[in-house]
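Human:
If only I could read backbone structure tokens as easily as an amino acid sequence. I am handing you a single protein, as its sequence and its fold in token form. I hope you can help me see how the letters and the tokens relate. Thank you; the sequence and its tokens follow:
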Amino acid sequence: MSGFDDPGIYYSDSFGGDAAADEGQVRKSQLQKRFKEFLRQYRVGTDRTGLTFKYRDELKRHYNLSQYWVEVEMEDLASFDEDLADYLYKQPAEHLQLLEEAAKEVADEVTRPRPAGEEALQDIQVMLRSDANAANIRSLK
């Protein structure tokens, strides 16, 4: 019966954090940084006609017109970074939020300084567009 009266001491580290959760947060931060790089640096055109920053200019134009959205073509994202497009294609609910946060950050950068009374930054909606062939759900096997 020795030790019967000793209930023992149990310890739970509630502030230490979870290494897997920290790793997931770092991964999301890296993906958001890559989305931001895409929106800021993706260019279209030729050297002869001149290169334009497609999404950065579109975000600035729409934001100044109080239209808080941008349409992103999946093919552009795939040509910039195929892995990034694959993440967005396979898990859109998780990664679209990161793309919208990146769009908001880019809009903040390109519209600074904003007029007095409009300092608060609006959320940006990202709409995805793809030229891929649509498939009927009933035809999938």
